[in-house]
Specification:
Shape: globular
Number of helices: 5
Structural class: alpha+beta
Radius of gyration: 17 Å
Distance between the termini: 28 Å
Strand order of the largest sheet: 1-4-10-11
Helix content: 10-25%
Largest sheet: 4 strands, antiparallel
Order of helices and strands: HHHEHEHEEEEEEEEEE
Number of domains: 1
Length: 238
Amino acid sequence: MQQLLQPYMKNWTLLRCPSDPSARDEILGNYRGRPPQNQLEREQCYALTANTGYNYAYMSPIVCYGGSANCGNVGRGWRNNPTHEARIRKPASTILFVDSIWFRNMRTGAPEGGGNWIVMPPCRFWRDPATGRPIDTFTMLYTPERAWSWYSYGASCGCSDWAGAGWMLQAAQGWCLWMEFGGTWPWHRRERMTVAFVDGHTKAYTPSQPTVGCDPRPCMNGFIRDPEAYLWDLDDYY
């Protein structure tokens, strides 16, 4: 998504938070310690570590077909499933981007490496009050019967891969420490994060505000309580 925006913005620094000390060319241009070999690779590094985390789980979920042989390599079998604008019922109250974090030092908890191109929503399931049946609000995702896996940090954080890690909150530790708020991060005085909505307006939120309407729990075990108030979904499942 960040690379798709560049022809219109023509400025990578617009995707970097000025409060992030790692948002510098020499850090963001070296993905996992490997210097880029050309300008295309350099821009891909900038996109991966942008401080604008995309609400991909609802806007363009990534799933893999063909079993472990394909899904073990991100370059094979993985496909995006972008939503159509018509499915987003309330653009002014649907999150598109949030300030994000790449990683946190497992010993000190300090942010490292810039931002992350995607972030996780805090909740996924809603219980239909009429039937009591749980509804999967990731309606763009393929079911486990049709796809092998979806791009999630669940398995890496001790959660069900299909449910996803979500916001790990107080359970965030070790490698998953950066998932405390689902990969979002309050860069501004460690108090607030910038949230951009589908209609283009932005707001400064505390970490608890993006969870309105849901009961955030590690491994997405909390349910959406108020679909009208929940800011991440497309409002197209009820």
